[in-house]
Amino acid sequence: ISLQIIRLEFSHYDVKSTNTIPAKDFALSMVASADMNHISKLLDRADTLENDPYLKHLRITFEEFKAFADLRRRLESLTMAIFAYGQVNGLLTKQDLKRAAQHVCGVELTDRVVDIIFHVFDMNNDGHLSSEEFLRALQRREADIHQPAARGGPMGWLNPKNRSSLLQMLR
User: Fold this and answer.
1) Does the CA dihedral 33-35-37-40 come out positive or negative?
2) Mind listing the pLDDT tens digit for each residue in 68-102?
3) EF-hand domain: from which residue to which, for each copy (predicted)?
4) Beta bridge partners of 22
């Protein structure tokens, strides 16, 4: 995905040309391609950002938006890293996600971005990422950008049969 496309999408949300976008708009950009079976719940979670005293005032910069787009482009590596960290720790925490993004994908996510990701995708509010839905939303988004008809790709790692071979590779 080109830098121009990322800039266009960012400017769509940056209506006041402040070079930042509201947390809610960032959340909506993440769930834009979510599975239709789950999209209403994810949209509701994005809406609840406005009820959180900390998150409702957060603004995401273009650099943060671009870093997240870079992470989406490295989805297969991110998927493997998330399941590797998740297998080691049981459940994925905010620090696990940041570590996986940085060490495996070379992308540094800010605390603000991670807080918004967790607000939307920590479905039961236990402090752990609902990683399958998060990865599925990202995978669908990338598929829509590159090949709207294709839906395979990195999400094969979500298949339980593939997880054991993934763990073998990471040892």
Assistant:
1) negative
2) 999 988 888 888 888 776 665 557 889 989 988 99
3) 109-144
4) 59
61 - beta bridge partners? 20
Q: Identify the burial level of 32 via C-beta atoms within 10 angstroms of its C-beta, where 0-12 means exposed, 13-18 middle and 19 or more buried.
A: middle
* Domain definitions of the chain by residue range: 3-170
Indicate whether 34 pLDDT > 90: no
125 phi-psi bin (left φ>0, alpha ψ -120 to 50, beta other): left
Rounded CA gap, 60 and 25, in Å?
Answer: 9
Please, which contacts does 87-92 make with residues 24 or more away whose CB atoms are closer than 8 Å? Answer: 87/163, 87/167, 91/126, 91/128, 91/129, 92/128, 92/129, 92/131
Give the Cα separation of 170 and 52 in Å (integer): 38
Q: In the prediction, which pLDDT does 31 show?
A: 87
Rounded to two decimals, the pTM is 0.79
Which tokens is 151 given?
Answer: 């839906």
Residue type, 48: T
